[in-house]
Amino acid sequence: MSEHPEPYDSPQHRDETAIAGMWLFLASEILLFGGLFLIFVVYSHSHAAGWALGVRHTSLVIGGINTVLLLTSSMVYILGVEAARNGNARGIIQAGLGAAALGMTFLCLKGWEWHTEFGEHLFPGPGFAIGGPQAGGAQLFYSFYFLSTALHGLHMLVGIGLIAWVCLRTYRGRGRLLQVMPVEVVGLYWSFVDLVWILLFPVLYLIGRV
Amino acid sequence: MMVHVLSCWVVLLMLLAVELFVAAAGSGWGIGACAGVMALLIAYGFMRITRAPALAFIFAVGGLFWLSILLALGSLDSFTRTNFPVGDTLSSTAHDPRTPPDTAP
């Protein structure tokens, strides 16, 4: 972003527009993930027994560890945003790399979990591992599971790419005036990805176990 | 500010522990409440929604409003239908003799 604020009235107006623009994008993301949660609301009610059977086959340990990783990653990146506000370029890069590494660890664990589930024939379709009268509900759950974790994982990849971009532009811009707003806007996106997982975690791992 | 962020993180981890404990105790509503509080804490502590410009706040509330419309209207049928059941019970009931089986090729 240039220091010249046109077409904005002032640098503050420019920054507020950037923040509001990201929130507008996140509002559209709320509706994207909202469709997924509608699937959960309807089918966990209409196919309750099969849905719960599916939930009981997921790995609570991996889900729990991933939740801690993502919460920590969000916190670390916000420390980078604070570093940007204090003009600390080194702090931005350290926090960004830390947050991205935790995000990559999350994706590796999720990939391992998927690998295990494919090995156990839990992907919906012919040869699905769960049989009996509740097989249909369990397949519906696993359709929801793979779709939601794939969509969330895609958002994670985009977020890690954005964090890498922030680190790179901060590194290249050493010695010049720091631009706080790109760091802050990416932080909003990264925290949103965390927030979505906070709501997906109980739906995928906990509620059917009750 | 760093203390504020770290405090939020610690509270989030504690809420996660409570959520797992509540799940073990068998309370579905407790799980939902924990997840809701955690989501609010992220919006407040990490995304700083209360310090965002007014327009951003309006966009966030608008997103939640349309989400509630989506969930309410989308789930209305399966929660209120009374003329015939939905879901597992539908697939497990015997064929209605008044409805001939589909014999089309």
Automatic annotation (TrEMBL), chain B:
<keyword id="KW-0472">Membrane</keyword>
<feature type="transmembrane region" description="Helical">
    <location>
        <begin position="54"/>
        <end position="76"/>
    </location>
</feature>
<feature type="region of interest" description="Disordered">
    <location>
        <begin position="86"/>
        <end position="105"/>
    </location>
</feature>
<feature type="transmembrane region" description="Helical">
    <location>
        <begin position="27"/>
        <end position="47"/>
    </location>
</feature>
<protein>
    <submittedName>
        <fullName>Uncharacterized protein</fullName>
    </submittedName>
</protein>
<keyword id="KW-0812">Transmembrane</keyword>
<keyword id="KW-1133">Transmembrane helix</keyword>
